[in-house]
Amino acid sequence: MKVTGIQLREAIKRWELRSATAASQFDGSIWAFDGDETPDPRALADEYRTSQEAVARIQTAQARYNMLVTLDVGGGDSKISLCEAVKRLGGAGRLEKMWRSAAGNTGRDRYSLRENMRSKDNEYAKRRATPAECVALANEASKVASKLRTMIALGNTAEVEMENLDPALFE
Questions:
Q1: What range does the domain containing 120 cover?
Q2: Fewest CB atoms within 10 Å of the CB: 14, 44, 99, 163?
Q3: pLDDT tops 70 at residue 43
């Protein structure tokens, strides 16, 4: 069966919704008065188990897909798997946030009166990167994160033949 990363992601979302719905109804189904129209807890448990198994199967297929799809990160011979791009994205986004935060860092501690000073000799800490440098570095980090997001989005449109994948998981 041929699938894209987008199809895999959307199928996971649908099965996770079914799982969450069954789980949220389960506690309320244990007790019922005669004539109540509540779902049977056994049926809800079966739905929960079935949907969790489906999520696991699709996530396994997604992991295989992410390893099969390769992305060109810099032209030439520099290719990485979609899996690696996804893993790199988190760090790239955090680095951008770190530099943006550093740009606004005044060096003051809002919970005490001391600043960046050593009291024994009144030695003051000096800023090692100016706010302008921090903003420039944040913008560079943002470009890296943006490129990864774009590559991931394009990679997820690739159609890949996946063996042993039940089409019923995508209905």
A1: 73-155
A2: 163
A3: yes
